[in-house]
Amino acid sequence: MAGQTNKRPVLNLPRQAAVRILNGVMTEHKQLSELTQSDDFQALAPEDRARSQRLATHTLRHVGRADRALRPHLAKLPAVEVLNILRLGLVEIAGLGAPAHAVVNDLVSICAASNQTRPYKGLINAVLRKAVADVTGKWDKSPVQMLPKWLRNPLREAYGNGTIMAIETAHMRGAPVDLTVTGDLATWASTLGGTPLANGSLRLGEIGQISALEGFAEGKWWVQDAAAAWPAAALAVTPGETVLDVCAAPGGKTMQMAAQGGVLTALDISASRMERVAENLARTQLAAELVVANILEWQDPRQFDAVLLDAPCSATGTIRRHPDLPFAKDGTGISELIELQTQMLNATVGRVKPGGKLVFCTCSLIPDEGEVQAENFLRRHKDFTVDTSLPQGMDPAWRTEEGGFRLRPDYWSELGGMDGFYLIRMNRRG
Ligand SMILES: C[S@@+](CC[C@H](N)C(=O)[O-])C[C@H]1O[C@@H](n2cnc3c(N)ncnc32)[C@H](O)[C@@H]1O
Q: Which residues bind S-adenosyl-L-methionine per the record (predicted)?
């Protein structure tokens, strides 16, 4: 109508998208990596996407704290979509120091924009203001967020209470960016301003856009957590050795072993993920034969000097980077993964030449996907023995009973931690 102004408020797009991500994780049990591929999310400007992802990630790391602060102000728990708006607001204001007035007003508008949450806009306003007043100055002293029972119970049994709390603290802190560099570590440390780590990785401090950093376009380094860089280092490939990388995509370990001079065959079941390996190899100007196949059915008769099996697993070692995982998953499917890992080990064993070497690893914290799997393998395959050498920078205290290494997120805490991983190197008798 002429003269009428549109009074609808302009919503903060990153905040609105962050609320949608939280809803997708908590109600549809989708992972952040999937939700951020949606058309809606991809339509945002790159800086809005980055901001939204940061907000959602930070909220997921602090849901426990937020819920503790909100509970006294809620007579009964509202629908999760409403709760997520409250959680995000509290984390942004109390945890990230955003101005309360602007955030509350905007979240009230976001609440009003959906039919489902519209009736609760008054509640958002009132509860957020009270909860923020309660936690101001006390947020960092609030207890750390606990893992959900499906994961906490088996981990507590494996590691004990104190360790679980240390792991949970590490999860809340998030993860720095680590690089694997192909040239001189000290030179890259001064060029990019990072800290060289004992295993040869480079840890970066504050970074903007990764792809804008010096050396990215030329493929001089790639992003890889320090813990994830140890399995290939443990395989200790020497120039000219033939190497089979089973479960290779997206190719972090393939690149490492190709850079060491190995003659690489990279195998993965997923054609689309294998495209990422090809892109990564092209950028880093490294070479590997790429095979898209199921290792359980691969008919190729070749044997290799060195074989690495980085088997699919619960990925519970990567929660620092993927705080959505404890909410998106519920523990179902882990026994199937354990069975698949056993089958993969059995399918891989014959690929190792007599006198050759094998590394098995998973990015899991659950011993059934690591220590137990390796122990059973060594019992089944008497022609394999544990390699007793210590990979560069590895702490001997991390050696496990059966001869592998248990890496945990609470290790190197003064440096910013590491992902959880299990790895073992074994040698086949000649
Ligand atoms: C943990 S990821 C591998 C990460 C990779 N090694 C790296 O360092 O970048 C596990 C991979 O196993 C692959 N995979 C799952 N089942 C497989 C199978 N039966 N045969 C071959 N690859 C499989 C998945 O497609 C996935 O890419």
A: 247-253, 268, 310
